[in-house]
Amino acid sequence: MSAFRINTNIGALRAYNALRKVTENTEKTQLRLATRRRINSVADDTSGFAVGKSLDQKIKLMRAAQNNIGSAKDMLSTAETQLISVKDLITDIRSKIADATNAAADSTRIAGDIKALAKEIANIFNTTKFNNTKLLVSTSAMTNGTTFSFQTGADASDKLDVNYMQSAQGTLAGSNTVTTSSYTITGIGSAVSDALTQLAAVGTSSAAISSLSSYLNTFENAIDGALSKVGNYVQRLDIKDEFLTSAIANSQSSYSRLFDADMALEQLNATKGQISQQVAMSMLAQANMAPQQILNLFR
After folding, report:
1. Is the per-residue pLDDT at 128 higher than 80?
2. How would you classify the pairing of strands 129-130 and 133-134?
3. Domain residue spans in the chain?
4. Most exposed among 73, 90, 273, 296, judged by the fewest C-beta atoms under 10 Å?
């Protein structure tokens, strides 16, 4: 019987192994409580770790895409505000044209006011920027007003190309240039260049002022088309933003189930482990003293 062999205390070794296993499990539970995470290493759950890390990556990419959507909305809001300002200036010019039909009006002063308003329109087109990128004229970042590309999803291919300067009503951005004594503007479409050219050179007669109306009509139609497209893009971005908000919440929930510890359950396991440790330690002490019974044979 192993109880009568003193070189190897089998009972004590078994008690030691039991104590070691209980200690390891208790330490793992205590680590989960300390980190609040169920998976602290790949060995804890290999497949769960891989799935969780994939979810975590997608969550970060979707949050980055959501930031892109916010930037796109801000950019479109900037363009919208300035386009509305241009439309308001066109309305002011129309009122000047109406005033010029009054025989008692000073057409020379009216022509000067129109040129001043045209200068402000050109200034808006030249200076409207978002993050130092011009929004209302063609540049290297927006050739012919066609491309502002934003990643709006977790996949690199999930992009939205924003082009609000070209529409069925007319093109605001293009390759035309207008140079006058008051301003120089480059990268505009024919609707803008024709209107600004005529506004800058308007004569002082009532007939010359009235002739501006046709150019303003074409210009304003192009503005209306751009504003319509801005509104459409904002609607699409709102839909994408709503989808990403829901997708992030669902992915975060799945990630939580894999990685977050159940604190109540882990506390129960920790308490059970601590009690088991104390019991195993006591039994190890008793098993370690068992071979001393052999000394009774030598009395």
Report:
1. yes
2. antiparallel
3. 71-257
4. 296
CATH domain 71-257 topology:
f41 fragment of flagellin, N-terminal domain (1.20.1330)
pLDDT in tens, 218-231: 999 999 999 999 99
Residues near 198 by beta carbon (within 8 Å), at least 6 away in sequence: 211, 212, 215
CA distance 236 to 72: 11
**Whole-structure pTM value:** 0.79
Question: How far apart are the C-alpha atoms of 25 and 184, rounded to whole Å?
Answer: 77
Is the pLDDT score of 75 beyond 90?
Answer: yes
45: burial class by Cβ within 10 Å (0-12, 13-18, 19+)? Answer: middle
Give the pLDDT confidence of 90-118 residue by residue, as tens digits: 999 999 999 888 877 788 899 999 999 99
